[in-house]
């Protein structure tokens, strides 16, 4: 008895809007923890308190893991939506615009996750080289951009996955 893979069995019953909200919420929570970790790190570095800097490392680890979780959820959402919209044959290599945009967003989510996982290793660097504090600002800016653009892209993907197919796009060929 051949069984279908689990991912194909769950695709027709997928609640696309709830999945998109789950990804958005994960990215937002990861960003909030990142803001908290960076704030605590700056507070500890400016005050010279290494115990507070050590505490901010734990916040950075948590933010990195939350971002990895959000990237995994986003990847699953995009793969399911691509299979749903393009079918198993995948007629087009690129697919519709929301699928392409979500693919780019997932790539950026993984890059941000990699940067956030590496943050605990860099968190003490501004103690020795003060100019490297700019890394925190760039990471917060990238996280904010991820939150804003991710919400737009994943909602567009959910809308594309829930709308019925266009009947004018199909024609009968004899």
Would you give an account of this structure?
By secondary structure, the protein is mainly alpha-helical. Helix content is 76%, strand content 0%. The chain has helices at 6-10, 16-47, 50-86, 97-122, 125-128, 134-162. The protein is elongated. The two termini are 37 Å apart.
Oligomer: single chain
How many H/I helical runs? Answer: 6
Mean pLDDT: 83
Topology as a string of helices (H) and strands (E)? HHHHHH
Largest sheet: none
Distance between the termini: 37 Å
Summing up helix and strand content along with how strands pair, one would put the structural category as: mainly alpha
Low-confidence stretches: 6-11, 170-174
| Radius of gyration from the alpha-carbon trace, in angstroms | 20 Å
Summarize the model shown.
This protein is mainly alpha-helical.
Keyphrases for this structure?
single chain; 174 residues; mainly alpha; elongated
Please render the helix and strand layout as text.
Blueprint: H1 6-10, H2 16-47, H3 50-86, H4 97-122, H5 125-128, H6 134-162
Helix pairs in contact: 2-3, 2-6, 3-4, 3-6, 4-6
């Amino acid at each position: 008895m051949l069984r279908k893979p689990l991912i194909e069995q769950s695709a027709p019953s997928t609640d696309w809007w709830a999945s998109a909200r789950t990804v958005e919420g994960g990215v937002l929570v990861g960003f909030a923890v990142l803001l908290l970790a960076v704030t605590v790190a700056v507070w500890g570095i400016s005050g010279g308190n290494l115990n507070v800097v050590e505490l901010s490392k734990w916040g950075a680890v948590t933010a990195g893991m939350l971002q990895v979780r959000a990237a995994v959820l986003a990847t699953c959402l995009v793969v399911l939506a691509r299979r749903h919209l393009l079918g198993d044959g995948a007629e087009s290599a690129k697919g519709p615009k929301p699928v392409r945009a979500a693919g780019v967003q997932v790539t950026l989510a993984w890059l941000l996750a990699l940067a956030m996982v590496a943050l605990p290793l860099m968190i003490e660097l501004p103690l020795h080289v003060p100019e490297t504090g700019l890394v925190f600002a760039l990471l917060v800016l990238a996280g904010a951009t991820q939150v804003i653009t991710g919400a737009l892209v994943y909602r567009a993907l959910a809308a594309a996955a829930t709308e019925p197919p266009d009947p004018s796009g199909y024609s009968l060929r004899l």
